[in-house]
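Hi, here's the filled form for the chain we discussed.

Project: internal
Contact: R.S.
Residues: 152
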Amino acid sequence: MKVKYYYSNQITEGELIYRKYEYSFDFLSNKYGTFVYLIHYLQISVDVINNKFVSVWGLHPDRVWEKTSLKVPDFKNGVIECEGDFIEGIGCTLEECNDWLTYFDKNSGWVCVGDKDTLEDAIMFAENIGVVIVDNELVSLWMKPKMILENK
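And the returned structure, exactly as it came back:
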């Protein structure tokens, strides 16, 4: 997937949560995408009108996360646009992400999916959701969710 970015203070506002009892992320917002890129069962929502990343949601069991200390990138607010023509309601698996691992830093609360060591070109496109891009390719997804431990 080829992406481009530009800096902007207009990131998607909302609240990123992780429901441990469901093993899933959710982004509570009034904005949503109608096309998704899949990293395993984790979904990056894209607005098909402007091809911009909107949010992240979906299953991603914390049981397989590697617990480690993470050096968090210095994120700058921005917009991520992906190339292509998208059809509403359709998703696409990111094959290049099939071997990506997930890392979790209990002290900071950050979750990294993908390359945890590359920290340049870090763009925060939604509240507490960012990506790292190298040569117009996504190399990692970073999230800092509010943890919800049980269903109340």
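Let me know if anything looks off before we file it.
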